[in-house]
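ARCHIVE CARD
Drawer: 12
Card no.: 0347
Subject: one protein chain, sequence and derived structure
Cross-reference: see card 0346
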Amino acid sequence: MMKQHNCNQKTLCKACDIKESTFSYYMKESDPRMPKGGALANIATELHTTVDYLLGAQPRKMQFNELKVLLADSSMDMTRAQITELSRMLMLAYARQEATANVGSTEMQ
């Protein structure tokens, strides 16, 4: 996940105020340590994900009203490119729904 965000261990540790030696314990494959809540939250924030995801929980789908609130709270912090990307995603979702609706109406005739 750090690679996806062009982030290395040193950069992540500095951003999260975690010692690199401590972070190494979190990353051990054999007998890893679990970060405390605050450290885990900071890591999730820096990696643009959730604590649940980092802990391996299955992502849940957000309800429409949750998405509206999230977008309203975040919209002023988003770049024009991010807003454009979201717009494209919504237009693709709309096109998929239209295509599905058209297939269903054609089958009924």
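Annotation on reverse: The chain has a mean pLDDT of 85. Helices lie at 9-16, 20-27, 37-46, 51-54, 64-74, 80-108.
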